[in-house]
Amino acid sequence: MLLDEDRPPADWMPDTSRRHAPPWLLRWLPRNAARRVALALIAGLVVTAGALVAGVRADRQDAGHVGVVRNGGLLDNRRIRQVLMPGAKLTFTGMFSQHPHEYPASKVVLFYTITGDARRGERREVDVVSVPTRDGVLVGLEGTVFFRFVGERDLALLRRFDQTFGTRKFPVVGTEDMVYPWKDDASFGAMLDATFRPILDNDLRTEVGRFACAQLVASCTLVRRVANPTSAKRDSIANASIAEVEARLNTSLQADLAETLGGDYFRDIHVRISRVTLPSSVQSAVDSVQAQYVAVSGAKAQVRKAAYEDARNAKLAETLDKSPALTRIQQIRAAPKGSTIVLSESSGDKAPGINVGGG
Predict the structure, then answer these.
(1) Closest by alpha carbon to 55, among 11, 98, 9, 107?
(2) pLDDT tens readout for residues 73-107
(3) Where are the domains positioned within the chain?
(4) pLDDT single digits (tens) 150-162
(5) Most buried residue, 130, 200, 224, 321, by most Cβ within 10 Å?
(6) What's the predicted TM-score (pTM) here?
(7) Cβ atoms < 10 Å from Cβ of 258
(8) How confident is the model at residue 281 (pLDDT cuts 50, 70, 90)?
(9) CATH assignment of 110-278, given 1.10.8.280, 3.30.479.30, 3.90.1150.10, 3.20.20.370?
């Protein structure tokens, strides 16, 4: 049994409230250095855990786009990891993965507008389309191309598109910017300007070049030596020709896009041409001819009017010869307004005379 004087002092007891370095660390390092190393290890573990938590990626996809996710970790490759379907809920996409490359979904209807007037194009350097006809008239086209992107309809083809066109930048018309096609809708439009548009222009030139100007624009018959059908017939021919151009473009454009771009990325293509315009010089000639036709029609109308007036006057003279009283009435009516009319007495078989004086 220990007496009070045999007990150790109170300050001899170990302070368990303070953290000490591990015993194995004390055998290798002094106490202060071991404590610093231990704190550094703990801080490193905390930072590593935070980085791992921050590297967790989860994304959701809106209903109008499909997302292609690529690896993005420090030691990872950059291959495609997964594809997020349109309207997908919050989905785990790996550690340090890249933000999804968003492309239009297959059910979204896209459109590309073309115009023959540089003042009406949304992007003046791109939208203007002028192609020659078979007889060499440069006509302008206004219309819209409706189509769909492959999207989630064919995932293998979508992956191929992201690996080919999705890895390069395209110029934005009118600026010096270079953008990836998956950045936003405007960037996807920049890709269309660089890839879709040249093929469209080539097909328009080929299909429109099969027809003469008068087959596409009825007023071309006024300045070109062609058969002279009726106006209704000319309009019917132009409408039928434009419909044929649209039908041929619907087939040829899709085939040419697939062959040139290396994949059937654009489908359900429908071209609608709203108007075919003439160059300003040709249109001026047409307007001049039309004005001359109007003048000729006006002259013909005046000739017919004069013939009717002549016939009327002859008939009126014949009637007046038969009725002296009616002649006097006509004379009185012909007198200037405010004049004084004096009727003289008749003598023998002569009718009374008429004297017209100032008012």
Answers:
(1) 98
(2) 777 788 898 999 999 888 888 777 888 999 999 99
(3) 18-54, 56-104, 110-278, 285-322, 324-359
(4) 999 999 999 999 9
(5) 200
(6) 0.64
(7) 15
(8) low
(9) 3.30.479.30
Whether 34 and 55 have beta carbons less than 8 Å apart is answered as no
Q: How far is CA 292 from CA 228, 297, 321, in A?
A: 17, 8, 43
Phi (first) and psi of residue 197, to 5 degrees: -65, -45
Query: Quick check: 114 and 143 in contact, CB under 8 A?
Result: yes
Q: Do residues 167 and 98 make contact, with C-beta atoms less than 8 angstroms apart?
A: no
Q: CA-to-CA distance for 109 and 147, rounded, in angstroms?
A: 6
pLDDT at 17: 46
**pLDDT for 67:** 94
Distance separating alpha carbons of residues 150 and 237, to the nearest angstrom: 36
Helix orientation angle between 197-208 and 231-261, rounded to the nearest 10 degrees: 140
